[in-house]
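Justification of computing resources. Each target in the renewal requires a structure prediction run like the one illustrated here; the chain below, 338 residues long, is used simply to show the kind of job we budget for.
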Amino acid sequence: MPAVPFRNVFTEAPSYLYTPAGPIRYWVQAPHLGYTERYMDSAGGTTQIQVAVRWEDSFDFIQYAAGTTLVVGMGTPSQPFKLSRSLPLLNQWTFHQNLIELNKVLAVGGETGALYDNGIWYPDPFFDNGFSMNGAVIYKADFANRNFRLLTDSQVDAFPLIDGVHRDELRRYVVRSFLPVYRERRVPNYIFETDEASPVPIPEVGFIADDGYTDYEYVWRQVPLNAVPHKAMAECNGRANSVAFDIGYTNKFTTETVIFIGVSRPVTEYRHTDGNLYCDLHYHFRYRPDMDTSKPGGGWNKQRRLNGTYVPIRAVGLTGPVRPWATADLHRLFRPEP
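Resulting structure tokens:
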């Protein structure tokens, strides 16, 4: 049970859920009314609490309690398009769990117009009909940890802007997973032979164990369907990062070490509790460490020689240093395009 006192609906000041429709007051019920805790190794546990809202606020409450995302801005350099997110309802007792499910328990009606001011409830079995405005609706609210960071707009705005203009959306609503991959490189003039007194050439192209790479999947959650960055996906596809990438997560993604491979799953729309259509974008990146300690930089556009040194590479017969991998600012994949 939580160490802090419970907020009793009859005596304590209410909490607020901040939404695009304005702040909505809600009350956390006394401890004997439906409070449970459940703990798990991997997920960190769940908590169930009963909360009450005024009847007239119940529609907005269920619409926004699970959070919502809007596109704001004018699409200009001074006012670029960006996401404005209202976060799911926060568990007042843990401050790291957010709402995952909401179930109505009952509705109660009042015989006076000041249901909470007088501190008395008047149950009315015929109240749950949507017409009276003098009552409350009680919900069971289930809270759990997310596997991604939930940050408010103001929290994200406290971080440095990318390129001095755009908000760093990689700091929130992004789930990362990775898989290290072995890699070898075939070398046509590198031939193996048997290791014996009279060696016999092996009629196969030789190879060297090259620098491995790591496949990353970035799942950008709850993206408005009408703001999917289709143009950025097309123009960044098959390109290496032109600037350091995802510095809020790690500082190892230096220039030209990450390639955008595309999306790893079909983009599927879904309707959120706020009534809007969203999708989750499963981005596939491939990271190759910059192993050149003598002259860092270049990443995918360098090749390791047989002696272990690195050298920049280019296409044969073309004017100028035409690199195998063109570059782009991969942060564009995390900006809305309404």
